[in-house]
Amino acid sequence: MFQTLSPVPPDPLLGVTEAFRADPSSSKVDLGVGVYRDASGQTPVMAAVRAAEQKLLAKQSTKGYVGQAGNRQFAAALETLALGAGHPALVAKRVATLQAPGGTGALRLGAELLALSGYRGKVLVSDPTWANHIPLMGGAGLQTAPYPYYDRSTGALLVARMLAALDAAEPGTVVLLHGSCHNPTGADLAESDWRAVADVMAQRRLVPFIDIAYQGLGRGLDQDAHGMRLLAERLPELVVAVSCSKNFGLYRERVGALTLIAENSAAATTSMGHLQSLARRNYSMPPDHGAAIVAGIFADETLKAQWLAELTAMRERVMGLRRDLAAALRREFGGPRFDFVAGQNGMFSVLGLSPEAVQKLRNEHHVYTAPDSRVNIAGLTGGDIDAVAKAVRLAVG
User: Fold this and answer.
1) Sequence spans of domains, the chain
2) Catalytic-role residue among 211, 324, 372, 384
3) Which residue out of 75, 246, 288, 295 is catalytically annotated?
């Protein structure tokens, strides 16, 4: 049976990780893997997370299943985090939230629910988008098509072209949007752009599918949710995939949720039933530990304040690294070619380098990026910024 399987092409990003690990250089720099790192190069356990975990372990009396819907305190906390307290959809009971195994699991559940609902149109995705978006949609039987978003050569958003593409979409078309800290580019829509997107989507009766994996790491918790909340006010239906990997540092715990806003409470209840059925036939029950930690943080004002302070420090560190890298690249290139890095949000930027330059960075200067020249800004320690900027100049030639 299994001998009929063809070899799977290696994942390009995992190949970068393996090459980095095998590199004996003492000056190597890993800007490929998309995890937050502190100034020492470590992905730390947040103090608020550790304290909440200790409280959880002290009082936990069972390891029994939490049920297909997951931790309901966690779900309520993420609804408030995403939509804000007292959102009209919450008051009208038009919201359904299912705990999922990470943001990726939430995306897949959302895609499967779309397919189950009979959606046969294409899911529009930004060009570029997170590498796993397209296979996730395809794995659920959905087709995708790109809409213009980013100019790789200049680091500028293509807002007018994006709006034109949305305006040409058929009514009912699902549009995948990045809530904040656009992966892979770090280039977010401005508030005025979100208003324009909301206008077009309302006029064309499009359905937003929002992936928000970095809330709080761009401009702040509420600022990063601005576009999503605006769409939730303007449109009758919304799909949101939430991840707690980055803003809580719970990568390996696989903590996420899928939130739906339906046209009415009856549709929300029915959708929740189908989501639980999809979960049952997929992974059965969600993991409990990470979601219980998040719920514990939101239930304790002291821990919540501590988490917010730590998240603010993480965001400010990344913003500082962006400014420093952009300044170093300006010095090396003698001009503003990479100034866009300083004005972007979150952990990622696409430098717009050729494949040959990416290979030179790796082979000659021991600087590892994703194949499309996406760099994880948080992978910089600060002390290596000048060396990385020089390596980029030498690789470009």
Assistant:
1) 10-45+314-396, 65-299
2) 211
3) 246
The answer to whether residue 11 is catalytic is no
The dotted CATH code for 10-45+314-396 is: 3.90.1150.10
Task: For residue 241, give every residue at least 6 positions away whose Cβ sits within 8 Å of its Cβ, in sequence order, or none.
Answer: 100, 103, 106, 107, 110, 209, 210, 211, 212, 213, 256, 257, 258
Q: What is the CA radius of gyration of the chain?
A: 21
- Sign of the C-alpha dihedral computed for residues 342, 344, 346 and 350 taken in this order: negative
> What pLDDT does 305 receive?
98
213 catalytic? Reply is yes
- What kind of fold does domain 65-299 have according to CATH? Aspartate Aminotransferase; domain 2 (3.40.640)
Residue of 213, 232, 328, 357 marked active site: 213
In one-letter notation, the amino acid at residue 205 is R
pLDDT tens for residues 14-45?
788 888 899 899 899 999 988 999 998 899 99
Q: Which of 48, 52, 130, 307 is catalytic?
A: 130
Give the integer Cα–Cα distance in Å for 67 and 149.
39
Closest by CA to 35, choosing from 385, 390, 376, 342, is: 376
Residue 242 pLDDT > 90, yes or no?
A: yes
On whether the pTM is more than 0.90, the answer is yes
The pLDDT tens digits of the residues spanning 132-159 come to 999 999 999 999 999 999 999 899 999 9
In this structure, what DSSP letter does residue 71 have? Answer: -
Same fold, 10-45+314-396 and 65-299: no
How many other C-beta atoms are found inside a 10 Å radius of the C-beta of residue 392?
A: 26
Q: Would the pLDDT of 383 be above 90? A: no
Q: What are phi and psi of 176, to 5 degrees?
A: -85, 120
pLDDT tens digits for 199-213?
Answer: 999 999 999 999 999
130 catalytic, yes or no?
yes
List 255's β-bridge partners, or say none: 101
Any idea what DSSP says for residue 22? H
3-state helix, strand, coil in the chain (%, to 5): 50, 15, 35
